[in-house]
C-alpha cells in the first residue's frame, strides 16, 4: 500500500491544519522537551501547512535514525505491529478524521500516527527503545502471554506515557500527544498518575475505547530502556 497523496481534498488539508495548530498550541506547556524539539526539527516535512507526504517523511527518517513508514489500512494485529517495529518500520494509516471528529476517535487516524508517533522516531534514544521493543516481541510472537505483556508495556509507555522533566509532569506518549482532550485531562484530579514500575505496568490491563484513568510517569527514556532487560531475562 502507498499513500495516494493527490487524493486528499482541500478540506482534508484544512482539517489537518486545524488539528496541528490547535494541538501545538495546547502542548506548549504540556509536552516533553524531547517531543517539542523533535517536532521543530521536522518542520520542513511535518507542519500545519499541508498533510505530510510520506515519501518526504521517509527520506527524513531514514537519514536520521533509519526508520520509515509502512502504510496500513488501520489497526493491525499486535504481532504484525511488533514485526514492523523490529524492522524499523512504523505503521500509519492514510485516512484523516473529519471536521466533525476533531476531538475523539476510537480508531487511530493519520493525525495520531504521524503527529503523535513520528517526531520522536528521530530521537536516537527513543528510536532505539522502539526498535528494541519490536525485536523482543518478535522473538516470542507465538507466546500469547508474552505478547500481551509487551503490549501492556508499549501501551503505558510509548502510547500513554508521562515523563518528569525538571520536576514537572510532561507528556511523551503518542496517544496523549495527539489527543486534545486527553492531553488536558491528565492534569485533572480525576486521573491517577503512578511512578513507573515494570511490575505494575505488565500486570495492568487497559481499554482501547476509553480515555485512560491511570498513567505511569518515568524519570527518563533510559528507565524504559533499562526495564527491557526484564523481558530479555524472560526469553
Please provide a written account of the structure:
This protein is 48% helix and 11% strand. The protein has helices spanning 10-27, 33-41, 54-64, 78-86, 110-117, 124-139, 144-159, 174-177, 182-185, 198-202, 221-232, and strands spanning 68-71, 89-92, 161-165, 168-171, 192-195, 214-218. The mean pLDDT is 93. Strand 1 (68-71), helix 4 and strand 2 form a beta-alpha-beta unit. The protein is globular. The protein has 235 residues and is α/β, with parallel strands linked by helices. The chain has a single domain (5-232), classed as Phenylalanine Hydroxylase, CATH 1.10.800. A 4-stranded mixed β-sheet has the order 4-3-6-5. The chain has a two-stranded parallel ribbon with strand order 1-2.
Characteristics of this structure?
Phenylalanine Hydroxylase; 11 helices; 235 residues; four-stranded mixed beta sheet; alpha/beta; 48% helix; two-stranded parallel ribbon
Briefly characterize the structure:
The chain has helices at residues 10-27, 33-41, 54-64, 78-86, 110-117, 124-139, 144-159, 174-177, 182-185, 198-202, 221-232, and strands at 68-71, 89-92, 161-165, 168-171, 192-195, 214-218.
- Indicate the overall shape: globular
Average pLDDT confidence is 93
| Total number of distinct structural domains | 1
- What proportion of the residues form beta strands (DSSP E)? 5-15%
> In the CATH hierarchy, what is the architecture at level 2?
Orthogonal Bundle
CATH superfamily placement: Aromatic amino acid hydroxylase
What fraction, in percent, of the residue positions are helical? 40-55%
CATH topology descriptor? Phenylalanine Hydroxylase
Round the Cα radius of gyration to an integer and report it: 17 Å
Biggest sheet features: 4 strands, mixed
- Helical stretch count? 11
| Element pattern in H and E | HHHEHEHHHEEHHEHEH
What's the number of extended β-strand segments? 6
Strand order of the largest sheet: 4-3-6-5
Q: What is the CATH C-level name?
A: Mainly Alpha
Q: What ranges have pLDDT less than 50 throughout 5 or more consecutive residues?
A: none
Class inferred from helices and paired strands = alpha/beta
Instruction: Calculate the terminal CA-CA distance, rounded to whole Å.
Output: 34 Å
